[in-house]
Fold this sequence. Notes:
- By secondary structure, chain A is an alpha+beta fold.
- Helix content of chain A is about 40%, strand content about 15%.
- Chain A is built from 6 helices and 3 strands, in the order H-H-E-E-E-H-H-H-H.
- Chain A has helices spanning about 10, 15-20, 70-85, 90-100, 105-110, 130-150, and strands at about 35-40, 45-55, 60-65.
- A 3-stranded antiparallel sheet of chain A has the order 1-2-3, covered by helices on one side.
- In chain A, helix 2 (about 15-20) packs across helix 3 (about 70-85), helix 3 (about 70-85) crosses helix 6 (about 130-150) and helix 4 packs antiparallel against helix 6 (about 130-150).
- The longest helix of chain A has 19 residues, at about 130-150.
- Chain B is globular.
- The longest helix of chain B is centred in the first third of the chain and has 20 residues, at about 85-105.
- Chain B has a 7-stranded mixed sheet with strand order 2-8-7-6-5-3-4, with helices on both faces. In chain B, strands 11-12-15-14 form a 4-stranded antiparallel sheet. Chain B has a two-stranded parallel ribbon with strand order 1-13.
- Chain B has helices spanning about 30-35, 65-75, 85-105, 120-135, 155-165, 180-185, 210-220, 240, 265-270, 305-320, 325-345, 370-380, 395-400, 415-430; strands at about 50, 115, 140-145, 165-170, 190-195, 220-225, 245-250, 260-265, 280-285, 290, 350, 360-365, 385, 385-390, 405-410.
- Chain B contains 14 helices and 15 strands.
- In chain B, helix 8 (about 240) links the parallel strand 6 (about 220-225) and strand 7 (about 245-250).
- Chain B has 2 domains: about 75-320, Aspartate Aminotransferase, domain 2, CATH 3.40.640.10; about 325-430, Aspartate Aminotransferase, domain 1 (Alpha-Beta Complex), CATH 3.90.1150.10.
- The interface of A and B includes residues 8, 44, 47 and 126 of A.
Amino acid sequence: MIDRSTPALGDLFQDIILEHYKRPRNQGVPEKSTVHVHMNNPTCGDEVHLYLLVADGVVRDVGFEGEGCSISQASISMMTQLLKDQPVEQGLELAERFKEMMRGDADAARDKGLRDARALAGVSRFPTRVKCALLGWDAFEKAVEEAGQGSDAER
Amino acid sequence: MSEIRAGKIEGDHPAGQTTVPTAHRGGGLDGASVRARFPLLQPDGAGARIIYLDSAATAQRPDVVLEAVAKFYRTENANVHRGIYDLSRRATERYEGARAALARFIKAPDKEELVWTRGTTEAINLVAATWGQENLGPGDEILLTTLEHHSNIVPWQLLARRVAARIRYVDIDEEGRLRLEQYDELLSERTRIVALGHVSNALGTINPVAEVIERARQVGARVLVDGAQAAPHLPIDVQSLGCDFYAISGHKMCGPMGIGALWARRELLEEMPPYQGGGEMIETVLPDESTWAPVPHKFEAGTPNVAGAVGMAAAAAFLESLGRDQVRAHELDLVEYGMDRLDRVEGLRLFGPRDPADRIAVFSFSMEGIHPHDVATILDAENIAVRAGHHCTQPLMRRLAVPATTRASCYVYNTREDLDRLVEGLDRARQIFS
């Protein structure tokens, strides 16, 4: 018997998600950056180059270049909006919150701090697509880790 | 085991479809009647059925295969080539009988030239690790093609690193066909082996393997053919092809997973060292050295997948009961119908050869502005299963300059109606992303 309890596509492909996909925010390489990470998802080929300009523990600028599905690219675009001008620590807390939302946490999905990214709450009901939504946030965490290892020099 | 019914041989199609005159003889199969033999493809309680279009990844299994595997475990299970008792003798008979059946399936002259493996991947690894290790050295060349599946690339890379050999690739043209004039340029006395897929898993291209083999012969190169995607769809004759190695997988041709076979010429198998050591593959074991069992057992260390072999033979018998030419004719009809329907979908780019004679019913495409994963998710909501991704062919994806494609692949149980449903699903994807 085939389980046809698949949630409605409308949960997944919301207008705001498609809008970010078609017109990504903060796309491109910023003039100055202190850290650059590349991450990809080998099973599907989604990828992102994420650039951060971090000074005094604050994300002063952020940009990305990416290739992939609507969920991965919209999620990255939404994330960059959230990170800009935020303390790195705050960014890491948002990353945690976003992951909680991907695990189906209803409180996280109502957290206004996640702004546009709350539209991705429905992705948690499509288990094969959760990794798409997490790609950008994983890249951010990796970038913070690398920045912490003393690669502060401007590039 | 229920009797294997012969496939219905007629040219009609589900109600509401226009039947176009088909040029091929025989007209093919009735996909809906064939589908009735596949438990997983039956409608659920609500009357919904899956439109399974991912047979290039793995086929579904008909009742006769499921029953053959169950019957083996219920009534014939014992280890093979060991026991004196009657049950073991019967299991051995079934196992060796399956070997003979698969040898006939690919028209191998001698059943002892057929080595059981876990599948095509293991068969290619076996050849690279044994024949390759013995016969290749620094500067020797391994010739592959841009169309290859990773399983016909990576084993050769591992070998090339060990023996300092070089890998070269035959490129494809814009329709995904091998550029034979470039192949001629790459072939030289340094070429020790040419390894290529009979049919491309990603594009469905049927390669001109007989021609490739003939040209390789002229420079003394051996040829390995990856038959994973060909054996399910085309009649195979390894003798008339003239290749040296031919590899197949059970699960692509309605058989169980975890079983496959390597065919090789006896003289090559005799020369090749063993692949893995263990029981079954030895003649005499002394404290410091051993001697090997005769071919093909020399390559079959450990307790084999006997039920898998029995199931794969049942799958071969099933395909033969449908008629191998009928299977091809049925799929050719789906190729023509599918290409026509997909060509009319706005923003869709279909990859692969334009001549239906050059392809099996695999449709690999991209849609403008919609990523393959989004296409696949939208189709899944309509209960249509397709593959989205690189199809284990990353060099080919780079050559086509796409990150991934959506692939709909058909088999004996698919119908024109399935392709209509696919096209409706694609229209829905276009609406969502418009």
